[in-house]
Amino acid sequence: MAFSPSSPSITLAVTDAGQNTAIQRFASQCRIYNEGPNACRISLDVGPKTIADTDMIMPGGLMEVLTKYGADTLSAKCKTGETATLHIVCGGGD
Fold first, then answer.
1. Which of 12, 25, 47, 80 could pair covalently with 72 via S-S, beta carbons 3.0-4.6 A apart?
2. pTM given for the model
3. Alpha-carbon span 59 to 69, nearest angstrom
4. What is the reported pLDDT for 7?
5. Are 6 and 30 a contacting pair, CB within 8 Å?
6. What is the mean pLDDT of each run of 10 residues along the chain (94 residues)?
7. How far apart are CA 53 and CA 79, in angstroms?
8. How far apart are the first and last CA of the chain?
9. CA triplet 13, 2, 77: central angle to 5 degrees?
């Protein structure tokens, strides 16, 4: 079964200051698209977190579907002086 959205899309403007947004807690997955123009690091957690250099890199133009494991927050941060725009939709699928 393909990914099936169960929540409205969230748009997150990401900067080098780091941003957090609440996501649908009970959905099993999130589809995340980085519109760019730059890469950013992301993390799915319970509650906001400070992004570390070990968190997942999301290049500009990339779309990923990630399993959430109960996460209710997406945190993201760009490198100094860079920005990115993330589009996040929660849902489920196989």
1. 25
2. 0.93
3. 23
4. 83
5. no
6. 85 97 93 97 96 96 94 97 97 80
7. 10
8. 5
9. 20
